[in-house]
Design a protein that fits this description.
With 509 residues, the protein is mainly alpha-helical. It is 77% helix and 1% strand.
Length: 509
């Protein structure tokens, strides 16, 4: 520090240095913001390029038809919807793996994009249900043009709502979004009586069923792993005993899940076949893990972190399988209404089920992958990192709960959302971790004092410790409230938007 006096009112050298540091920080922050804005604009540019490519290809396919303009508009909206599905819904499949550091962001994007596209193209099916979940009957529409306008409005409303949810960082169900779009457009076009309200009731029930089931099952598996492995003195020996069984359960569950959901459009397996597939996968996975992966455990330290690394490979496989099943199952949300419009315009037929042209299916498959690669990281970070802290064990339990919950719900005939299940599983393991951490916090000081020969804590001190421990929140409540609010308004919001858009589209055309 300088010992020379400074003129009255002039800044000292230390003050000048502080001012320069602040200016440098502002410049760095401005540069980072500029870079983020540039990358965002670049992503939007690539997305626009894909939409333009879809328009060009649509022109080649249907440029000579009378309804070319409608088909071109529907194809662009379908591509937009597919990108939004990739940006929002796919994140639930790989978010836990990224949050637990089992996968890097780039690795997760590559795996999810590949398996989403493969699932859509291989098992997306050649026939789709045009009216999602049978909410509105095609016979309810007055004529072909009204049906086409309703499908356009429903598809655009769902895409806009999912896009908005992505911008605010809320993972939502794209199935519920398209259901809301069909509901709103159907009411605007054909009246309230056209809606199958009992089906709407079962869909509304899934808002509660999906996250609660997913959370309970994920928390149950995590509690079992903690009691059977993590809390044991010899964690490595416990891992040798139980990890092959857990991985076998995951293999069996995902095999059944893949056949029930991922391959249902190309092969509908009966219950005996599903049981055989599940048991066979369990036995094979158990043998592989037991006799190969855990044959030599001399290199494994007797710590929670080292044992947790054994769950990484199964977790990566689960992320890939979830992506494949999601691509095959949810591609219809993007291209189902589009296929209905193409059929109605070219063949003059309005039907509940239509043939799915390969080029329409390709729009959905490629669009989902592009949306994931360009805009997916935001929701992946929310699911994997921002709700609660995940490690490979917790993420494994979330992935396992996703498959088992779908199997149980399908067996009971209950509608569930894969998005709600995955996010509910993340909340489930987070709240269990919070509960266990707070419960363990209280009696420890008294035990330590007794072991050291000191006077134990007084009841008042223990109560104060308990009160302090209860305030430890390992799940971010603002994400809980925001996500639940987004779930509750998904169907009404997309329905209102679709009704307004239907009236605008009808007036325009």
């Amino acid at each position: 520090m300088s010992i020379l006096p400074t003129p009255h009112g002039a800044p000292s050298p230390d003050q000048k240095k502080t001012s320069i540091d602040k200016d440098l920080k502002r410049i760095i922050q401005l540069e980072k913001a500029t870079t983020r804005l540039g990358l965002r604009n670049l992503d939007m540019g690539f997305g626009l390029l894909f939409v333009m490519a879809v328009w060009a290809y649509t022109y080649l396919q249907s440029g000579t038809t009378d309804g070319y303009a409608i088909i071109a508009i529907a194809s662009i909206i379908g591509a937009y919807m597919a990108m939004n599905i990739g940006a929002n819904d796919v994140a639930n499949n790989v978010g836990p793996a990224v949050g637990s550091k089992a996968l890097t962001m780039m690795g997760a994007l590559a795996i999810a994009a590949t398996f989403e596209a493969a699932g859509a193209l291989i098992a997306g099916g050649d026939v789709v249900n045009t009216i999602s979940k049978g909410v509105v009957s095609p016979e309810a529409f007055a004529d072909q043009s009204v049906f086409v306008y309703a499908m356009l409005a429903a598809l655009l409303a769902a895409a806009l709502w999912v896009n908005l949810a992505t911008l605010i960082g809320a993972p939502v169900s794209t199935t519920h979004s398209i259901v809301g779009g069909v509901l709103g457009a159907g009411i605007a076009a054909a009246g309230v009586s056209a809606v199958d309200w009992p089906i709407m009731g079962t869909i509304a029930a899934s808002w509660v069923i999906s996250p609660v089931l997913g959370g309970i099952i994920a928390a149950g598996f995590l509690l079992f792993v903690k009691v059977a492995v993590i809390f044991k003195k010899d964690k490595v020996a416990a891992a040798q005993r139980w990890i092959p069984i857990l991985v076998g359960i995951m293999a069996g569950a995902f095999s059944v899940y893949l056949v029930m959901k991922g391959l249902k459009r190309v092969w509908k397996a009966e219950t005996p076949a599903l049981i055989t597939i599940g048991v066979t996968a369990f036995v094979i996975a158990y043998a592989l893990v037991r006799y190969f992966s855990l044959k030599d455990t001399s290199h494994i330290e007797n710590t929670r972190k080292s044992v947790g690394k054994l769950f990484r490979s199964p977790l990566i496989c689960a992320a890939a399988l979830l992506s494949f099943a999601h691509g095959s199952n949810d591609v219809a949300n993007a291209v189902g209404p589009l296929a209905a419009i193409v059929t109605a315009v070219t063949a003059g037929t309005v039907s509940a089920e239509v043939t799915l042209p390969l080029w329409v299916l390709a729009i959905g498959a490629i669009g989902i992958s592009i949306g994931l690669l360009l805009f997916g990281p935001k929701i992946i970070k929310v699911v994997g990192e921002k709700i609660t802290k995940l490690d490979p064990i917790r993420a494994f339990c979330v992935a396992l709960s996703a498959a088992i919950t779908v199997i149980i719900a399908s067996g009971l005939g209950l509608p569930v959302s894969s998005t709600h299940i995955a996010v509910g599983g993340v909340f489930g393991v987070g709240f269990l971790r919070e509960f266990i951490t707070n419960r363990q916090f209280v009696p420890a000081p008294a035990k330590q004092a007794s072991a050291a020969g000191d006077a134990p804590l007084s009841p008042d001190m223990v109560i104060n410790k308990w009160a302090k421990a209860k305030k430890r929140k390992l799940v971010r409540r603002r994400y809980l409230l925001g996500i639940v609010a987004a779930w509750l308004i998904t169907v009404p919001a997309s329905a209102i938007m679709a009704a307004v858009l239907f009236m605008l589209v009808s007036a325009f055309f």
